[in-house]
Write a structure and sequence with these properties.
Blueprint lengths: L9 E6 L17 E5 L2 E5 L2 H9 L3 E7 L3 H4 L8 H19 L8 E6 L3 E3 L2 E4 L3 H15 L8 E5 L7 H20 L7 E7 L9 E10 L18 E3 L4 H8 L2 H9 L2 H13 L2 H6 L5 H17 L1 E6 L2 E6 L1 E3 L1 H18 L9 E3 H11 L4 H19 L7 E2 H4 L6 H4 L4 H6 L8 E5 L5 E5 L4 H9 L9
Parallel strand pairs: 1-4, 1-8, 2-10, 4-5, 7-13, 8-9
Antiparallel strand pairs: 2-3, 6-7, 9-10, 11-14, 12-13, 15-18, 16-17, 17-18
Helix pairs in contact: 4-5, 4-11, 5-11, 7-10, 8-11, 8-17, 10-11, 12-13
Length: 467
Amino acid sequence: MHSTDQRVEKLLVAPWGSPWGSSRKYPRGWNLQTYIYEDDSLQSRTSLDMLARKLRPDKVLIVVLDTLATTIINTGSKREYLELTDDVRDNVERYIENETKELKNCDFEIIVAPGVGRFRNGVFKGNLSDFYYFTCWELAKRMVGFYRSLKEVHLDLTHGINFMPTLTYLSLKEIISAFNILRSGENNGIKFTVYNSDPVVGEEMQKLEIHVVEKSEPIWFVPRLKVVESSITPVCPSGKNPELWQKLNSEKEIARLRKILNCKDASAFLGAILNGFPLAIVSFFPENIRCLGEAIEDIVSIFIRYIDVNVKDCSVTLNRKLKFTEHFKFLVFVWIFARLLRLTEVIKCRLKEVELEVLKVLKGKVFKWNNVLYSVVGTEIWQIEEHVKKRNVSDWTLLARVFGRKNDQEKKKSVHDRNFLAHAGLEENCVEVKIGDREEIMVRYCEELMNVIREYCCKGLIEARRS
């Protein structure tokens, strides 16, 4: 797991196809071009060289496909998957050292992601979406380490091929948006800029201008997330294979993940953030965040463990028996939000009861990304504060009674979902309050209604919700 103390203000990310074409031995890849950006020019084989010169990034992440192995394969090539990806990474690093002027002086890192396709020297079988899920995690775990310092993310799509540009763009945009949701109260959202150069036409050296395709400061793009109601299944067999399902379910890492993560609580936690329920964020805050991150890494290891590699006659055949599911992305974003909330030091652990002041802090730090949520949460907190101050509430008391309503026990147990959503999860029939020993106002949910509250928190967590 990457540390959270590396200072990175500018991050440059780029998906790359094959710099040397279909063969490393007989390269016919990227030719020298004159790249132009902001009245400056540089002869190079890659636009990333020019952007490295102009942007001066603190970190560069280059995403390549494991299918590059088909371009470097030989009779002495390794047969284990991780050895194969190490070969790919080493070759890309050597290319950067030998063929670039500015990029080689940067702090760069190569991420080798799963690809699919048929090539001259091999076949890679698998699920195309694996690239998206894998890249999402690999980017997220690094970027969380830069969370405190990160100000700008730059994405160069010039050399990406096929599905790489679209899925890298989507991954980055969702991760940055999660960051910006939790930085909204500080008014220092991460700026996101996307670049692409003119296309290369013919074999001659050309003057290629690098264009800014998108510039957002900051971006608000709520990640697409679904509720996980059943047992968590972050990977599954690529095809119908009952024996493989049985074997997968017996993996100790899967069992460990299911033990440390309550899916319904985690879904409620995400729903609370995206729907504006401050008390629910505290009540369903994930426990064992470090263990969750380790469990996600274990899932990636299982995914890799079930990859078959066959090298024969300078050709490689690769078959992925497993594929990532939407549950994997769900885990990644639960981990992101929990880690970032803990980094902001607003919440350190799950609490059954909490001071109202903590909800005020959450309002300011978490919900400023959405004016409606920010306003509703503020109004509900203000009403609680005003009414409790006027009454001597020394013991836990239903909020409805503090408001002066007459509630029988039956009504207390029948909270309406519409009211719960409309009142920022602070609906008067499910919240209890009291004044603490230090005259602080304490709030909590009614214990007997937690299952209903959990369900209501998940209602707004819809697949395509965006702001």
